[in-house]
Amino acid sequence: MRDVTAPVPLTLEAVTIAIGGRPLFAPLSLTVPPGGVVTIKGASGSGKSTLLSHLCGTLAPDFTATGRASLGDSPLDGLPPEHRRMGILFQDDLLFPHLSVGGNLAFGLPAGLDRAERAGRIATALEEAGMVGFEARDPATLSGGQRARVACLRTLLAEPRALLLDEPFSKLDTALRGRFRAFVFEHARARALPTLLVTHDPSDAEAAGGPVIDLEFA
Amino acid sequence: MEATRPGQRRGWLRFAPAVTLLLFLGPVGAGLVGAVLPAFGYLPALGGDGPSLDPWRRLAAYPGTGSAVGMSLWTGLAAATLSFTLTTGFAAACHGTRLFRRMQRLFAPLLAVPHAAFALGLAFLLAPSGWLLRVLSPWATGYQWPPDIALSPDPYGLNLILALVVKETPFLFLMTLGALAQVPADRTLAVARGLGYGRATAWIKAVLPLVYRQIRLPILAVVAFSVSVVDVALLLTGSTSPTLAILIMRWANDPDLAFQFVAAAGACLQLGVALAAILAWTGGERLVARLGRRWVMDGARGGAEGAARIATALTVAVAGVGVAALAAMGVWSVARRWRWPDALPSEWSLGNWAGFSGMAGGPAATTLIVGLVAAVIGLVLVLACLEAEDRAGRRPTSRALWLLYTPLIVPQVAFLFGAQVLLLGLGLEGTWGALIWAHLLFVLPYMFLSLSEPFRRLDPRYARGALCLGAGPNRVFWRIKLPMLTRAVAIALAVGFAVSVGEYLPTVFAGGGRITTLTTEAVARAGGGDFRVIGVFAVLQAALPLIGFLLASILPGWLHRHRRGMREGL
After folding, report:
1. PANTHER family, from UniProt (chain A) (predicted)?
2. Fold for domain B12-40+49-332+350-566?
3. Where are the alpha helices (DSSP H) in B204-304?
4. Is pLDDT above 90 for A205?
5. Chain-chain contact of A97 with B570 (C-beta, under 8 angstroms)
6. Mean predicted lDDT score pLDDT of chain A
7. Cβ distance of B560 and A98 shorter than 8 Å
8. Which homologous superfamily is A10-97+144-149+159-214 in?
């Protein structure tokens, strides 16, 4: 896939998030190199998902974040979410129910490509997922594994510069889970995306292979 | 280091709540001022340069003001109490049963039919020459001819109360359904029944307290509406026992312009009556809560079952009356010869429709256009307010949005009277713009009531995910939120349209007699006494909103017919 910008690392410097003046966790500093995975572990309620929504720029107004986050040399803080190019995958696939599989993928593609190019990229993506010819399908008719892969491809087609994983494997059954995890990590590595994974499952951390950080209560 | 909150945007949209509120509260306030000033003798156009208490003195001296106030309070509070009791008892006895779902399907269309159409249908049922006496005569009543009594002697306003209950029970029931979806009703009920409580007792003791908070505003709107309703009262109360709202209409239409001052004082009094009714209701709430708390904690596992069963029977009866009223006007609209006391016409004909289409065509077109325009404007404003709230987080202006409900609480008679004075002054009375705006005052709150819940309940992660895919907030709104809300938007449009079709008083005041709709025509023709003409108007008036709801229930599913995930809920 075409990517006009060279891979860059994702850096967090002393990032904290507070609600009502009370910080959720101790200041966090880390660097995820291009193609690398850093795993953040923490109990539920520790603020891991909140951290990811802060990095995407979709933090709810009740929260206040401090510290710096940047992609390479460019700071993320203050940018609206749609200009950050942070791809995110949630626990649920969140495929848009009113769009076809092809429509969901097209929503991810950047604007300014001609029609043939768009169709071509969608077809290639579906091929990578082993779902050739699924363009017109209703997402509601897909299996859980297929839905997860479409969600991942939709994120990747938006040409993100970093990937945030908000426990995207936790709702899949064990067999599917391993395969989908491999699928996601393989694609992230192929695109040299810095990947930040939050999870409470040790097997996810193990599969990711990178450093593991425990999110501590402040 | 600076705290950042990139979710907040700047743009015209953030003014939407403030602008909408101004557009609505301004005129309501001005309308009230326009009633208060003449009430204290100030109305230069009619030579009133007050301040004076003369209007109030004349109001107090008018024979019947006192009993009219009593009549308003009695009919309004009785109707609201009955409607609420029936709804609660029915929901308690039937939650989760098949009857519950069936009533839901029956009540939705009953709610869509305008008040005036119902009142006319009830008159068809209850009048001396109406269906009820036809069916009972002569075998049960002994009457060979229609009894020679006035249409409604009815000194206790029972017809009015019945009509209001027939309309308000469906409304409160559907509001209760919406509230039940927001609270963990099924689980709460399961826990309570597991503790040994009977079905209805469990519902009233454990679920009602959760639900009541959510439907309090619609209930207060029902209370305020019932004590100040005009069109239903005009159609169903006897001339000897008018409510205050009817007296105000008489004064406002009196050829002697001096009565304008009395009408203004009456409008202020009507506001007081509505406030008194609301105070009485909230006082009752406190009393019931106090006694209820003791009852909830006394451990009795049953106790409400029998009462709830009675309420269920009455609710079904009320729905039956509603259906019979609709049927009565349908039958009259195609009757040619219908001798008393035959139960059905001896000759049927579509001639009424052919004959009266010339009469009804103009008002029907006006009704359609005003309704559609008001509903579309209402939709734009409601969506703009909700989207602004979503982008900015709940801020003071959006928190103040509940003020939108003011026109539902403040009696129409009270501020429309003053608003008419205002419109006259601006030379806008009788214009389409004034008419549509007057309708919007009531269309908008109901649309907000209908759309805000689904909009706020939409899973925010869809929008967040779309933003992270690089779509701007506007694209997310048009491509994700709006299509996902297709069903809710369609229902809101149908609600707005139905409200507009049913508006009587705003049409009379803002239309200035120059623009008439099906509703004003139907009410005006009710005095004429030709049941066939009235039948045609009433059926048309009921049919328009019903078609709206039919489309709203079919179109979204058809638009998304290839998407299984869009069939339910959203």
Report:
1. SPERMIDINE/PUTRESCINE IMPORT ATP-BINDING PROTEIN POTA, SPERMIDINE_PUTRESCINE IMPORT ATP-BINDING PROTEIN POTA
2. MetI-like fold (1.10.3720)
3. 208-226, 231-236, 244-252, 259-297
4. no
5. yes
6. 90
7. yes
8. P-loop containing nucleotide triphosphate hydrolases (3.40.50.300)
Percent of chain A with pLDDT over 90: 65
On the 0-12 / 13-18 / 19+ scale of CB atoms within 10 A, B253 is exposed
Regions of chain B where pLDDT drops below 50: 1-9, 569-570
Read off the pLDDT of residues A41-68 as tens digits, 9 standing for 90 and up.
888 778 888 999 999 988 888 899 999 9
Number of other CB atoms surrounding residue B527 within 10 Å: 10
Residue A64 Cα, gap to closest chain B Cα (Å): 6
- Taking an 8 Å Cβ-Cβ cutoff, which residues of chain B contact chain A? 1-9, 392-393, 459, 461-462, 464-473, 479-480, 483-484, 486, 560, 562-566, 570
Residues in Cβ contact with B107 at an 8 Å cutoff, skipping those fewer than 6 apart: B169, B170, B173, B174, B319
Distance, CA of A189 to CA of B536 (rounded, Å): 72
Asked if the Cβ–Cβ distance from A82 to B465 is below 8 Å, we say no
The ipTM estimated for the assembled molecules is 0.84
SS3 of residue B14 by DSSP? helix
Q: Which residue from B299, B302, B97 is spatially nearest to B200, judged by alpha carbons?
A: B302
Whole-prediction pTM value? 0.85
Q: What is the spatial distance between Cα B537 and Cα B137, in angstroms, rounded to a whole number?
A: 28
A133 versus B20: which is more confidently predicted? Answer: A133
Check B570 against A65: CB less than 8 A apart: no
Cα A115 to Cα A110, A127, A150, B466, distances in angstroms: 12, 18, 20, 21
A78/B4 Cβ within 8 A: yes
Residue B237: predicted pLDDT: 80
Q: Is the dihedral of CA B222, B227, B230, B236 positive or negative?
A: positive
Q: Judged by CB atoms within 8 Å, which residues 103-142 of A form the interface with B?
A: 107-108, 110, 138-141
Q: Using CA atoms of A89, A91, A92, A95 in order, give the dihedral in degrees to the nearest 10.
A: 10
Q: What is the pLDDT of residue B569?
A: 44
* Inter-chain contacts counted by CB atoms under 8 A, chains A and B: 118
* CA-based nearest distance B393→chain A, Å: 6
Residue A34 near chain B (CB below 8 Å): no
Domain ranges of chain A: 10-97+144-149+159-214
Q: What is the pLDDT of residues A76-124, one digit of tens each?
A: 998 888 889 999 999 899 999 999 999 999 999 988 889 999 999 999 9
A81 and B467 within 8 Å at the Cβ level: the answer is yes
- Residue A151 pLDDT more than 70? yes
Chain A CB contacts of B1 below 8 Å: 14, 66-68
Per-residue pLDDT at B133 = 78
Structure confidence at residue B52 (pLDDT)? 84
CB atoms within 10 A of CB B316: 17
Helices and strands (H, E) in chain A, number of each type:
6, 10
Name beta bridge partners: A23. Answer: A18
Residues 6+ positions from B437 with CB-CB distance below 8 Å: B27, B510
